[in-house]
Amino acid sequence: MAEMTPRERFIAALEHRPIPGRVPHFELVFFLTMEAFGKVHPLHRSYHQWDQMSESERRLHRSEMADIYIMTAERYEHDAIFIHPNPNTLEETFRLIDLIRARTGDRYFIMMHGDATYSIPSGEQMEEWCAWLYENLDEAKAEADRRVDEMLEKAERLRRHGGLDGFALCADYCFNTGPFLSPRMFKQVVAPYLKRLIAGQRELGFYVIKHTDGNIMPILDDLVEANPHALHSLDPQAGVDIAEVKRLVGDRVTLIGNVNCGLLNSGTDEEVIASVHYALQHGMPGGGYIFSTSNCIYTGMPLERYELMLEIWRQEGNYPE
What we know:
By secondary structure, the chain is an alpha/beta fold. It has a single domain (6-319), classed as Alpha-Beta Barrel (TIM Barrel), CATH 3.20.20. It is built from 13 helices and eleven strands. The longest helix has 25 residues, at 137-161. It is globular, with a radius of gyration of 19 Å.
């Protein structure tokens, strides 16, 4: 039997199929590219003068961004690449996908952000947005529909272009204490539109991962009923226990997570190792699991802590061959 590619392994996990060998792994973002490779992460580049660049300058930027994603996947054994096109236009997205595919073929699963649902508003906008929502509920629902329509139109263009495998829906719904919206309001202005968005993306042939930080337990059933292939990140800093989520919904949705990012940043080595043990111990049984942190590898995190996490994963995150 031929060895599975990282992309094939990632898809198998999303489909709850058995996988021999190591549990798939990826991160939504690996921001430590300067420390790892001496290169600025694509999202940290300012392209205010993009329109003034010569085409040769643009080609150099595109090429280096593609290389950064590929180097990250190769060095840290990511089965999937989450791209962040910059500038964030559809045309530049096409070019970035094409560059990665030209250099790696179908080796990696490629995804990008694809959410259109309401998320937690910024602190500056929160009071005004909440007042608008409660005073203009019908308008808010119409706007939610419009946003889903717009995202599905974009998804259709991406399908026609080819090369993209799926979307990660990155609208955050929850604080550590629970959902920003009450479960009753969530069912009105988010859940139906999330379900329609995921159904449309799946119908176009894409895999869909739903990401949200925070305490998702009061809306867990709503998230699963929206029918994503996977949930990310099962935030332990918000009290989300991967063992409990696995027991409740692990037969219905793939779980991605959930090594504690806070411990990676400020805990002891022993605490990091214990968090890795716990995620693997409770995520792996029965399949339908992808290993990752509980958020991403963010700026300021010690790189050696991520490398420690991966060392334990390589030793213990393996199914029988």
